[in-house]
Specification:
Strand 2 and strand 3 form a beta hairpin. By secondary structure, the chain is mostly beta strands. Helix content is 12%, strand content 46%. This is Phage tail protein. It comes from Pseudomonas monachiensis. InterPro entries: Phage_lambda_TipM.
Protein backbone atom coordinates (compact mmCIF):
# COMPACT_ATOMS: atom_id res chain seq x y z
CA UNK A 1 0.00 0.00 0.00
CA UNK A 2 1.38 3.40 -1.00
CA UNK A 3 2.07 6.11 1.54
CA UNK A 4 -0.45 8.93 1.18
CA UNK A 5 0.61 12.57 0.97
CA UNK A 6 -1.05 15.45 2.85
CA UNK A 7 -1.60 18.01 0.07
CA UNK A 8 -3.94 20.63 1.55
CA UNK A 9 -2.43 24.12 1.92
CA UNK A 10 -1.91 25.05 5.55
CA UNK A 11 -1.56 28.47 7.09
CA UNK A 12 1.96 29.38 8.14
CA UNK A 13 3.03 31.35 11.17
CA UNK A 14 3.29 29.05 14.18
CA UNK A 15 6.81 28.06 15.13
CA UNK A 16 7.85 24.41 14.99
CA UNK A 17 9.34 22.62 17.96
CA UNK A 18 12.75 21.18 17.13
CA UNK A 19 14.99 19.38 19.60
CA UNK A 20 17.80 16.85 19.60
CA UNK A 21 17.87 13.87 21.95
CA UNK A 22 21.33 13.79 23.51
CA UNK A 23 22.82 11.44 26.09
CA UNK A 24 25.14 13.10 28.55
CA UNK A 25 27.65 11.61 30.99
CA UNK A 26 28.81 14.09 33.64
CA UNK A 27 32.27 13.63 35.16
CA UNK A 28 34.24 15.41 37.86
CA UNK A 29 35.87 18.76 37.22
CA UNK A 30 33.02 19.92 34.96
CA UNK A 31 33.95 17.52 32.18
CA UNK A 32 31.10 15.86 30.32
CA UNK A 33 30.59 13.75 27.23
CA UNK A 34 27.61 14.11 24.93
CA UNK A 35 26.42 11.91 22.08
CA UNK A 36 23.31 11.85 19.91
CA UNK A 37 20.69 9.38 21.15
CA UNK A 38 20.24 7.02 18.21
CA UNK A 39 20.46 7.52 14.45
CA UNK A 40 17.30 9.67 14.33
CA UNK A 41 17.86 11.92 17.33
CA UNK A 42 16.23 15.00 15.80
CA UNK A 43 12.64 15.43 16.99
CA UNK A 44 10.49 18.00 15.25
CA UNK A 45 6.80 18.84 15.26
CA UNK A 46 4.84 21.46 13.39
CA UNK A 47 1.58 23.09 14.45
CA UNK A 48 -0.66 23.51 11.41
CA UNK A 49 -3.89 25.40 10.79
CA UNK A 50 -6.39 25.07 7.97
CA UNK A 51 -9.42 27.33 7.70
CA UNK A 52 -12.10 26.52 5.16
CA UNK A 53 -15.55 25.27 4.38
CA UNK A 54 -16.95 22.29 6.24
CA UNK A 55 -16.63 20.01 3.20
CA UNK A 56 -12.85 20.65 2.92
CA UNK A 57 -12.30 20.21 6.66
CA UNK A 58 -14.22 16.91 6.47
CA UNK A 59 -11.87 15.77 3.66
CA UNK A 60 -8.86 16.52 5.86
CA UNK A 61 -10.46 14.81 8.86
CA UNK A 62 -11.16 11.72 6.72
CA UNK A 63 -7.48 11.68 5.71
CA UNK A 64 -6.34 12.01 9.35
CA UNK A 65 -8.89 9.41 10.51
CA UNK A 66 -7.50 6.92 7.96
CA UNK A 67 -4.08 7.37 9.57
CA UNK A 68 -5.51 7.24 13.11
CA UNK A 69 -2.53 8.96 14.74
CA UNK A 70 -0.25 5.98 14.12
CA UNK A 71 0.15 5.50 10.37
CA UNK A 72 2.64 7.93 8.84
CA UNK A 73 1.93 10.12 5.83
CA UNK A 74 4.08 12.35 3.65
CA UNK A 75 4.08 16.12 4.23
CA UNK A 76 6.34 18.96 3.17
CA UNK A 77 7.57 21.20 6.01
CA UNK A 78 7.59 25.00 5.72
CA UNK A 79 11.32 24.72 4.84
CA UNK A 80 10.40 22.51 1.88
CA UNK A 81 11.60 19.18 3.32
CA UNK A 82 9.46 16.17 2.46
CA UNK A 83 9.17 13.73 5.35
CA UNK A 84 7.02 11.22 7.19
CA UNK A 85 4.67 12.56 9.86
CA UNK A 86 1.85 11.49 12.14
CA UNK A 87 -0.98 13.51 13.63
CA UNK A 88 -2.61 12.52 16.93
CA UNK A 89 -4.60 15.62 17.86
CA UNK A 90 -6.72 17.25 15.13
CA UNK A 91 -9.21 19.81 16.44
CA UNK A 92 -11.94 21.07 14.07
CA UNK A 93 -13.55 24.22 15.50
CA UNK A 94 -16.63 25.88 13.97
CA UNK A 95 -16.03 29.54 13.15
CA UNK A 96 -19.49 30.27 11.74
CA UNK A 97 -21.19 30.41 8.37
CA UNK A 98 -20.15 26.86 7.47
CA UNK A 99 -16.47 27.68 8.01
CA UNK A 100 -14.23 25.61 10.27
CA UNK A 101 -10.74 26.09 11.63
CA UNK A 102 -8.73 22.86 11.91
CA UNK A 103 -5.66 22.90 14.14
CA UNK A 104 -3.26 20.01 14.62
CA UNK A 105 0.36 19.11 15.23
CA UNK A 106 2.36 17.03 12.76
CA UNK A 107 5.12 15.01 14.44
CA UNK A 108 8.09 13.51 12.59
CA UNK A 109 7.93 9.74 12.10
CA UNK A 110 10.60 7.30 10.98
CA UNK A 111 10.43 4.02 9.12
CA UNK A 112 12.30 1.08 10.63
Amino acid sequence: MAIEKFTWPTERGDSPEISYRVRTAQFGGGYKQQVGDGPNNKEDSYPITFTGLKVKVLEIMDFLDRHAGAKAFLWTTPLGQLGLFTCKNPVPTPVGGGVFKLTATFERAFQP
